[in-house]
Design goal:
The chain is about 10% helix and about 35% strand. With about 525 residues, the chain is mainly beta.
Length: about 525
């Protein structure tokens, strides 16, 4: 008889438990900032506020806010809402932008702006954005979660910018940012009517961080107008005999010296799949040296600022090295080629075919650089000549010469090899008389002069006898003698004597003119 009440109690407990579960579920759905859309919130691809222009010339008819997915492109924005906060009261104001059904474009941008703003997908009336101190914030949520006058909240917050136009900081809005992140002044460069707040490098800084914002000409729906550092890839040596522990990449700041390299990263691309490979070299905390150079090299590069212990760390081609405004974390292994935030690049090879997938890293029409272009890939490096010339993403000034890591490139200078030939002022006119000429080759360059060809055409009636150059001349035509001479070291002069004889007696007062010409593959021709 005691079983019946017990059974009844169990049924009652079960009913109560189910009721509590239903109540908790209902409360969860009704809780502030939590909604069904959050279950479908985007994941994996971070979407940020990348640019904002609140104050424009005239009646503020060119206001906009730009979102960016880092360049992934076509990222769905379902489950996101963009909310505006007024610094007067630190509460939301209209309009509120529900982004369900929208996505970024192929380049990763999404623009909300006044009619006529380039690329605007969602439009709103002019003079809608407060000029500051105010804020824009991106949330997981729906527009209905933020009726006008909603207090500032960090629940489900993704990103935010707190901005002004020469206004005091608003602590009530700054809670939207990470600790110690600044309020952004659209008049920071003194031209608020024609500038927008932009992340630089484009898309940089991270969620709820504002310390990378600068002010520059608006670029709605496109990469921000970020100033590029005056640093280029100046020299690269990927192929040498042996274990290749002297491979290196040299950066150069044009000679300014002691230039901070914070925010830069060197990325290597493999031509076999046109994707990045390791190592990726983050340059935060480094600077160029007093002469403007910075060297990344193997264990055999004595003056390397960053040493890569692995020999063969640079592929021989067709491959590429690129300098970006970014972090190493932005380039995990096998990252596809990108031009986003690209500062400079070299696409190179050792007698390989051009790689169209890598050449997009360069400006149109710029060549792939062959380290074997001078026929000595094991001893030569690719170098900009004149030193540091050409400009970012241009490769047409590269040539191949002896490596010069951390120093000026071994660039030839036209006309730096001079030839002087001095003969006797007078000579006896009888046949068989000797004429002795002093021939001097002066190399004023800082590189050796090689592949020297000296051609001497003797005057009519004069015959070659001998010389002490150490090289036997060819005699391709009557009176023409051609020497292939040894290299002349840098900043050196070599001299030898040529002896000739008169074949027949000459009339007194006859002037004998003798001209010689020297040519080299590194210096200009200089007749003498």
């Amino acid at each position: 008889m005691n079983s019946s009440p017990t059974h009844s109690f169990l049924r009652s407990s079960l009913a109560l438990s189910l009721g509590l579960l239903l109540l908790l579920a209902l409360l969860a759905l009704l809780a502030p900032g939590i909604n069904a859309a959050q279950a479908d919130a985007p994941s994996g691809t971070a979407v940020i506020i990348n640019e904002l222009d609140s104050d424009t010339d005239g009646t503020d008819a060119a206001e906009f806010i730009e979102l960016f997915d880092g360049g992934v492109g076509n990222t769905p924005l379902d489950g996101l809402v963009l909310v505006l906060f007024n610094g007067n009261g630190d509460v939301s104001y209209e309009p509120v932008f529900d982004l369900d059904g929208y996505s970024t474009d192929a380049n990763g941008y999404f623009v909300l702006g006044n009619p006529g703003v380039p690329g605007a997908v969602i439009t709103f009336p002019g003079n809608s954005l407060q000029n500051g101190a105010d804020a824009a914030a991106l949330y997981f949520g729906d527009a209905t979660d933020f009726p006008s006058g909603t207090p500032v909240t960090t629940g489900n917050l993704i990103d935010a910018i707190v901005y002004d136009t020469d206004d005091s900081d608003d602590p009530g809005l700054l809670v939207l940012l990470n600790a110690d992140q600044p309020q952004v002044n659209e008049n920071g460069a003194g031209d608020k009517d024609f500038h927008a707040n932009q992340r630089c490098p484009n898309g940089a800084g991270g969620l709820r961080n504002t310390d990378t914002y600068i002010q520059d000409t608006p670029t709605s729906g496109a990469a921000n107008n970020c100033p590029l550092p005056n640093v280029v890839i100046n020299e690269l040596d990927s192929d040498m005999a042996g274990d290749e522990n002297t491979e290196f990449i040299e950066l150069y700041d044009g000679g300014a010296g002691n230039t901070p390299l914070d925010g830069l990263v060197v990325v290597l691309y493999n031509g076999s799949n046109d994707a990045s490979y390791m190592p990726v070299l983050d340059l935060d905390g480094y600077t160029t040296n007093a002469d403007g150079y910075f060297v990344i090299g193997g264990s055999g590069v004595g003056n390397a600022d960053i040493t890569v212990p692995d020999p063969f760390w640079l592929q021989n081609g067709a491959d590429a090295a690129a300098l970006y405004l970014a972090d190493a974390a932005d380039f995990p292994d096998m990252t596809p080629v990108t031009t986003n935030n690209l500062v400079d690049a070299i696409v190179y090879d050792t007698d390989d075919n051009d790689d169209g997938g890598l050449l997009v890293l360069l400006n149109p029409g710029q060549p792939q650089v062959n380290e074997n272009g001078a026929g000595d890939k094991d001893s030569h490096a690719n170098q900009r000549c004149p030193n540091g010339s050409g400009g970012g993403r241009n490769t047409e000034t590269y040539l191949q010469a002896l490596p010069s890591a951390g120093a000026a490139n071994n660039c030839p200078i036209a006309g730096d090899l001079s030839l002087m030939k001095v003969g006797p002022l007078t000579v006896s006119p009888e046949a068989g008389s000797l004429l002795v000429y002093d021939i001097s080759l002066a190399n004023d360059a800082d590189v050796p002069a090689s592949s020297l060809i000296l051609t001497d055409t003797l005057p009519a009636g004069v015959s070659y006898v001998s010389d002490n150059s150490g090289a036997a001349p060819d005699n391709p035509a009557a009176g023409v003698y051609v020497w292939s001479l040894p290299d002349v070291p840098a900043m050196m002069t070599v001299t030898f004597q040529l002896t000739a004889t008169l074949e027949v007696s000459q009339t007194g007062g006859v002037i004998l003119t003798n001209q010689a010409i020297v040519s080299t593959d590194q210096a200009g021709d200089d007749p003498a």
